[in-house]
Amino acid sequence: MIYLDNHSTTRVDPRVVAIMGSMMESNYANAGSTTHLAGREVALKVSEAIRTIASCLKLDPDVASDELVMTSGATEANNLAIFGVCLHPRQKRRQVVSVVTEHRAVLDPLERLKQHGFEVVLMPVWPQGHDLVGQIDLEQASQLITDKTALVSVMHSNNEIGCFQPIRELSAICHRVGAILHTDATQTVGHEAFNVSELGCDLMSFSSHKFYGPKGSGGLYVASRPSGIRLQAQILGGGQQSNRRSGTIDSVGVVGMAEAMRLAVEELPEATNRDRALRDRLWGNLQSIEGECIRLNGPALHDHDRLARNLNIEVEGIEGQTLMLLCDELCMSSGSACTSAEPLPSHVLQSIGLSADQARCSIRFGVGRFTTEHEIDRATELMAESLKSVTR
Ligand SMILES: Cc1ncc(COP(=O)(O)O)c(C=O)c1O
Q1: Which residues are identified as catalytic?
Q2: Which residues of the chain have pLDDT under 70?
């Protein structure tokens, strides 16, 4: 099996597994049970882990527990950001601005907000062929975002075509009119140099299983500057995490996520360069398959406007689903994991101008830490053999 679906999830690094395994065996107490030593030991590990996460994100570790809410992943973090800001009792504004290419973990909560009387505006993105394909138009953003806008939610990098959004510039636009900026950085954190403080966002979601950590762990950064963000808790109960997210904290998950993030950041930028070289090799190989018309979807590969590990291609005349069935040794995806169970063509690809048929004929690859050059070459051979066997 050749695993080239690292946008969907990643293999947990064995170094992370080791730490989590030993903690499960020995540190099983509840971090909230600080009345006894076992609980205090776990609480200490959790707070050290949160400090590590803060340092990795270039935040101040001394205010880490104020600025980081641990969640079950990016879906929950996005829900907390969107509903937490918009449904806060003191929220008077009734408009939210986002983008057509967001993940469903943003689009679906936004859809729900409409039932609460919110106007949701989804910005389009530049089409295929444009230098800034997949990015929003900042000019348009500055017209749409006004003093009526409660929240702007724009992903940091796209999970299908890997393009980055101009978050820093957007932050200036939002802050001029007092709108809060959330960015879903699920695909960026742990993979590219990332400095939350410099980015200027107020809220930022991340997820451990995208950077070789465990599934079911993630977090939301909530800026404490300048006067804090009013965020209404969405999960109520025992008042853990300063009442912002109740429920016994997943101490093993948080410690595993912190170690995964520490390793990922320590191994940057070499890991990114390695990913880029593997991805470019795959693209080079695929282009040399005879008799096939294979086109690149999304930004050019030669610059830094695209996630280093991301490749998205259209193979003319062959549905991605068909190709995936033929190449069953190859793990790849025909869209985002969350929509690939449905036979719907990708909304992201259609948003950059592909037809529904072209989107159906597209495949997403994501190389990763455990991918080898040999696997890239073998993957291409498998693709070439399968393509030859298809009658069109
Ligand atoms: C951009 C983006 N946001 C959110 C999610 C959901 O993350 P999680 O699986 O941690 O809930 C994903 C995962 O596919 C993603 O790629």
Answers
A1: 338
A2: 226-227, 335-343, 391-392
